């Protein structure tokens, strides 16, 4: 059966029954139909959080299909509940970009999924729509102010860096001109769209602790400059309140369930390559308040999602993982060893031996943060015993246990061994989280620290545009902010062709984007863009809905 068919056969509990497992009363629940609900922020309890364990799930450098972080996160949650822990999966909300593009949804797979999968992968509870409206309200107000004869604050249209967003892979919107059509239709200027997960409003939602924090961050959004050279922030346009009220519901985390009816809290966006790619602080703290274990994920490999989860989100929110799961697949190790796509499912110990260096590097990356890791070998049918034994042997030499995870094919039954290994680490007290850099370091030093320690580069180069933007960053006082690096997820380097563990390479910062509202600076490496494009044959071509409303083709 496909992921969708398994999800459509799920025996879901009414969401109020799932909430009851977390001692949430019906009065506190804000149902969105029978199987989804919003959770009020009053459920966050710092006292209760203290005794809960936080497990971060990351991965090796993935193939384009993904190596199963979300699937393993859900499967591990099932397994932890099976061994008696009150575990909650805390995941990100899917973006329609990959849903209609290549990768598909982000509700897990096989017998490790969150449901209702169709709702979650499509409009869910409207959070992305709210984020888009708040983002684009600011864009509309900026252009309205530029146009105004009576209330203009003197914004120089050539300096506006705030972009519009839409949650779709649409390359045609990357570089556009707005305000065409003559004097009553606006002032022409260059603009562009990013995909909604890359919106700074998404990042603000992911890091905010409450409404006043949300509004403070929105107010600090850098828009551009006035003709006199002074900076313009969102607060100067007087719509911070309006933008915040659009997020009235989106700020609340969403409760759904796993196939085995265990609780899952979904909140915040993906894309750790072009954005932060972690879920929200509020959802993580909500999970730690309501359960004993939170299993949470950060996008792509440990060089992206985990690095940002640790250096940005954990530092901002005062969180610290008790254990880290590094998801590896034999097929991805074959890929890093030179296997072509059609060879991914062909056992080849030699290729695994060539590709294993990628896993070793990601284990080292987790250890750079003072954290204890366990490797989850996300089992695929063509994995050979000798390949698995080899991976376990290499991990053991690095002091890390590797456990086969069969959550995709067996649900919680297939992850009990992994669950026990995670509990052993989480309750050992052997993880001592420390971020990689101090916020007092210069922007260049922060980038160099990440690029050398986590990517393995020898040198960071800067384009002339990036060098001039560095001066602007220092002048604006953004140099004390953390960095959220944008780069390809297909390689530890900024060149997607460099697989396994690239050595003796340099990376180049092409330009910067500013997220002074969210509270970080965005160095963009290589040729990565923040509005993806559709593939020549979009997944959308295989989708349909029948007269009874039954969906097909969603993955
Ligand atoms: N063990 C497995 N066997 C077969 N398919 C899997 C397995 N694990 C994950 N998948 C599939 O691979 C895709 C990516 O899984 P996902 O959990 O979304 O990865 P990630 O979160 O790392 O991107 C999904 O379509 C999922 O159904
Ligand atoms: O940000 C990307 O998330 P996945 O790796 O789960 O697709
Ligand atoms: Mg995922």
TrEMBL record:
Superkingdom of origin: Bacteria
MF GO annotations: ATP binding; formate-tetrahydrofolate ligase activity
Keyword Ligase: yes
Any Pfam family: FTHFS
Pathway: One-carbon metabolism; tetrahydrofolate interconversion
Reactions listed under catalytic activity: (6S)-5,6,7,8-tetrahydrofolate + formate + ATP = (6R)-10-formyltetrahydrofolate + ADP + phosphate
Enzyme Commission number: 6.3.4.3
Class of this enzyme: ligase
Chain coiled-coil ranges: none
Matching PROSITE patterns: FTHFS_1 (PS00721), FTHFS_2 (PS00722)
Binding locations of ATP: 63-70
UniProt-listed GO biological process terms: tetrahydrofolate interconversion
UniProtKB keywords: ATP-binding, Ligase, Nucleotide-binding, One-carbon metabolism
Family classification: Belongs to the formate--tetrahydrofolate ligase family.
Protein name as it appears in the record: Formate--tetrahydrofolate ligase
Natural source organism: Capnocytophaga leadbetteri
